[in-house]
Design brief:
Layout: H1 10-18, H2 20-28, H3 41-44, H4 50-53, H5 66-83, H6 87-96, H7 107-119, H8 137-148, H9 161-170, H10 174-184, E1 190-193, E2 209-213, E3 216-226, E4 234-240, E5 251-257, E6 263-268, E7 278-287, E8 292-293, H11 300-335, E9 337-338, E10 341-342, H12 347-376, H13 382-407, H14 409-412, H15 418-426, H16 435-449
Parallel strand pairs: 1-4
Antiparallel strand pairs: 2-3, 3-7, 4-5, 5-8, 6-7, 9-10
The structure holds flavin-adenine dinucleotide.
Length: 454
């Protein structure tokens, strides 16, 4: 069905193919090896020390493949040239929008960013090749998101990975042409509606009903805090189809197109930071069988997988913000004097820098390991996703706070991105599961199943 519809990062990949260093680097990569890369025994030999040469397996390799390093450099340039100059505009729009949902990036600027990103091959990074994507996987996406998030401009590359995963796992028949492909190419936007007034951390407690009547599904209920609902072409709506079974066979996902009769989006929640999610009401909303996403009653597991993908992304966003903070903290500490001495000479400041760097590095390794597991397939990565989301979102709060303290008054001002970051990242400890729920889940898993092998 499918001729490529997205522009591949041809420049990068061709350069890699023709470069000896690129090929060697690609061939020798084993540890966090991207699936697109081949591995040859001949290439690995020089990397063994005498002891390791006798081993059957090559030790773990912590180096990013050459193609991902090139991708990272492409994104870094995009951030420097396109996003950083937009930051003052975003800060001002966020301060001025008050209780409204005014987009933080001016729409014409967002269009420009999208075409630039497409032109340099940043679209469809985790979209399968048969749908015109680059199929570079989640490690590539992790690298890209971290880099993008070294800027506060809330620009996301289409398609948004969590719903992409859920649609890819669950779309069938006509849904592939109607929803998955336009979503994968960035033509359509979507939202997901899980949370309800009485079900947030515990989505299994949702009340929203979908009943089968006269050959149609009829949806009734209320969802809250639904990000992007007003801009979405369709919303993935989670509803109870069998109250007795609940999350074990009684929750189904539906695709509801915008402007479907009975669905309304009356109000915006003005929350801390950059988000402006919505309340969405469903009043006898009728959808045909063809709008069931996946199997009837079995929507909960794909939804959880989708949440796992966003959890990984939140860790990557946290890494980007933390890196930006460190990039601001280090020169400031080296040039700012108080009481006749540089801040860099104060032990307190040294510890802020040392701790921030170490915490960031630790989050990066568990996040890349998770991305690698996702790319390999066949792993149960739910605990890893909980862990990286928890550690990333808590780490970034500490790092941003230290950076603000180091900058004193300027750290509080809107002339710097730190104040924006502090509010934007606060919500990362809440959505996609609050920290406490992830701690509880990790403990429950260990207490039930014991220590994992690795
Ligand atoms: C900006 C924003 C955007 C959002 N976007 C979306 C979206 O697009 N789609 C969507 O469906 N939802 C979205 N949400 C909803 C979000 O996922 C929920 O707010 C979140 O899951 C928490 O649920 P709750 O608000 O009902 O808090 P509650 O479930 O009431 O929990 C409150 C607090 O109780 C504590 N707690 C809960 N359970 C436990 C436990 N087991 N152990 C220890 N402590 C616990 C935690 O501290 C938690 O913060 C968004 C929320 C925000 C703020």
């Amino acid at each position: 069905m499918t001729k490529p519809v997205l522009s591949l990062s041809k420049g990068n990949l061709e350069a890699l193919e023709t470069s000896t260093a690129g090929r060697a680097s690609r061939d020798r990569h084993v540890g966090f090896r991207h699936p697109a890369m081949t591995y040859t025994a001949a290439a690995r030999a020089p990397y063994y020390n005498t002891g390791a040469r006798n081993r059957k397996e090559r030790p773990m390799d912590f180096e990013l493949p050459e193609e991902l390093r090139m991708l990272r450099e492409t994104v870094a340039r995009f951030v420097r040239e396109e996003l950083i100059p937009l930051e003052p505009v975003v800060i001002r729009r966020e301060a001025e929008r008050g209780l409204t949902d005014t987009p933080l990036i001016p729409p014409e600027a967002e269009e420009k960013l999208k075409s630039k990103a497409k032109e340099i091959g940043l679209y469809g990074i985790d979209v399968p090749e048969e749908y015109g994507g680059q199929n570079m996987g989640m490690l590539a996406k992790a690298v890209v998101i971290e880099e993008l998030k070294t800027s506060i401009v809330p620009f996301t590359l289409p398609p948004d990975s969590p719903n992409l995963w859920m649609l890819r796992e669950s779309c069938k028949g006509d849904q592939v042409e109607k929803y998955f492909i336009p979503y994968a190419t960035g033509e359509k936007k979507s939202a997901i509606a899980i949370t309800e007034p009485s079900a947030g951390s515990d989505p299994a407690a949702m009340q929203m009903r979908a009943e089968y009547k006269n050959g149609k599904w009829v949806l009734n209920g209320q969802k809250i805090f639904i990000s992007g609902a007003r801009r979405a072409d369709f919303i993935i709506v989670m509803a109870v189809t069998d109250p007795k079974k609940g999350s074990r066979g009684g929750i189904t996902a539906f695709i509801v197109d915008k402007d479907t009769k009975g669905m309304s989006i009356p109000s915006v929640f003005s929350t801390i930071g950059e988000h402006a999610p919505y309340a969405v009401f469903f009043d006898d909303v009728e959808v045909p069988d063809g709008q069931v996403l996946g199997e009837i009653g079995n929507g909960f597991a794909p939804m959880q997988n989708r949440l796992g993908v966003r959890r990984m992304e939140i860790a990557c966003r946290s890494l980007g913000y933390a890196r930006r903070c460190l990039e601001l903290m280090i020169p400031q500490a080296n040039q700012r004097k108080t009481f006749g001495a540089l801040l860099a000479d104060r032990q307190q400041v040294q510890w802020w820098i040392a701790d921030s760097f170490q915490e960031m590095e630790m989050v990066r390794w568990i996040t890349w390991r998770l991305a690698w597991k996702m790319d390999q397939g066949g792993h149960d990565w739910r605990r890893d996703a909980a862990m990286v989301k928890l550690q990333g979102s808590e780490m970034v709060g500490r790092v941003v706070d230290r950076a603000m303290q180091l900058f004193g008054g300027m750290g509080m001002s809107k002339d710097m991105p730190l104040e924006y970051m502090a509010r934007a990242c606060r919500v990362w400890r809440i959505f996609e599961g609050p920290s406490e729920v992830h701690r509880w889940f990790i403990a429950r898993d260990l207490l039930r199943n014991g220590m994992p092998n690795s």
